[in-house]
Write a structure and sequence with these properties.
214 residues, alpha/beta, Rossmann fold, 6 helices, 8 strands, 31% helix
Length: 214
């Protein structure tokens, strides 16, 4: 379906995985795809979360006329932030809309997940709205620093071929003190979606399971 954020006059296409019977509130997981990807590219992950009892909403982050451009050179953490802010606003709107429709329990707090650029906007949302998030998970985001918070629980899967910018990942001491889970997986950055090999999907789901159970 497509939601409309009337305050921004912005359409937000979404895919919903799981039981949508009215009145059956479930823990909510919000997924944000990487740049160049689409919201249907992470079905293996959505299916696993549904089996764990979540209702999953995967957002299509559109590039609309008037949106800030995706910058590919210079200080990317600074120059891409306007793009992340658009995405973070969409995440917040969808969280509110799912609660308004009676599909999720806002008191429980959402799990927010994002890959690459979607991970950057996810970490920005968790930093700015920690009260709305129970778990913040990135699949190899590289620019936006992970929030240095004990709440929400912060996790990040790290690829086998890319390194995050300085300051994005907390030090081992910070990770321990804040209860974070930073886990290396045998998957390239661009393969952290449905095209990953079966063993790679198993590795990613196992790492996510560790995050959810700690």
């Amino acid at each position: 379906m497509t939601l409309t954020d009337t305050a921004r006059q912005r359409p937000i296409p979404i895919l919903i995985y799981g039981n949508t019977d009215p009145g059956r509130k479930k823990p909510l997981a919000i997924m944000s795809h990487g740049y160049g990807g689409h919201n249907g590219d992470y079905a293996f992950l959505a299916g696993d979360l549904v089996r764990r009892g979540y209702i999953v909403v995967s957002i299509e982050h559109l590039e609309l006329p008037g949106d800030p451009p995706m910058i590919n050179s210079g200080d990317l953490a600074l120059l891409r932030r306007p793009v992340w802010e658009v995405g973070a606003s969409s995440i917040g709107f969808v969280i509110g809309e799912m609660a308004r429709q009676g599909l999720s329990d806002s008191a429980y707090g959402a799990m927010v997940i994002g890959h690459s650029n979607g991970g950057d906007m996810t970490m920005l949302f968790a930093t700015e709205h920690p009260e709305k998030v129970r778990i913040a998970l990135s699949l190899d985001n590289r620019r936006m620093p992970l929030p240095r918070l004990r709440q929400p629980k912060v996790c990040s899967l790290r690829s086998s071929d890319h390194v995050a910018d300085p300051g994005v990942l907390p030090s081992p001491t910070e990770q321990t003190a804040l209860g974070m889970s930073i886990i290396a997986v045998p998957v390239k950055h661009d393969d952290m979606w449905d095209r990953a090999a079966a063993y790679q999907k198993r590795a990613m789901l196992a790492a996510i399971g560790k995050c959810l159970n700690t």
